[in-house]
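Below sits the subject:

***
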Amino acid sequence: MSVQKQHGGELSDEEFRKFTLYCNQSNNYHDDTKRAQILGQHGEDVRISPGAIVRIKDNQIGKKSYIGLYSYVNGDIQIGENVLIGPHANIVGSNHLFNPADDFFSARTDEVSGKVIIEDGVWLTGGVTVTPGCHIGKCALICANSVVTKDIPAYAIAAGTPANVIGSIDPKTGEYHWFNKGKNND
């Protein structure tokens, strides 16, 4: 059954115009919080930007967290409080597995091994991908376009493909400490 039929029938041209503008241009506090509520995320000040696809269980996003423009969040994902997810992020909580009986990727990982946990205060900057089964610790910073393939500790700064810890954040001062910054790594 189509979504339109499931929720009251075909849209008029005017309704479709409004809906399209709402989905693509309404990036503001009121619309982002309303979008989160419609998608089943009822925590205080949870915001979901236009174009984001969020297919997770209800109330899996902690209060005051934000999912950026055109991000994709799918599977068993637990997002803590005060988490910032930049635009074009991909967070997937399950995976396809090769099934020799079928000779293609028809099987799925179980929810336990594929679950992604993003703790409070994490910042995933633009273009970050988090693969199934990863746990990102409290207040970690994942740099732009990084691909997280393993657990990241609390207060770490990680970058790259695959993401590696390249620094840390002092939880008392907020100061960034970079490992090997300025050293010749030949």
